[in-house]
Please model this.
Amino acid sequence: MSQPKLLDELRRLEAQATKGPWTARVHPHEPDMILEAGEVIVGRVYLHKRSGMTLEQRQHNADFITTLRTLLPEIITALEEVATLRATVERLEQEKRDMLTATKDDSRAAE
Model:
């Protein structure tokens, strides 16, 4: 996926999802993790016996989901900054090529 498409998709997902920050807590009566945005339950990470998932892996999955959701606005901003820097570098490289070409042309004309 190209960076512009990636940014568009991340912006779309961020705008449509329940606002962060999200947190995770252990369900009081089951071995599942409850994902919350404030007082709103937004998801659940289940621990199925047949999955082979450990309690530790369940916790890591819940942490992954909640952390990425909470940090997504910052991730989008960082990717936008990278895109801006790339565009600047490309522009400067083109200006350099143009200047080198002009210098060569000037040298040939002086001969």
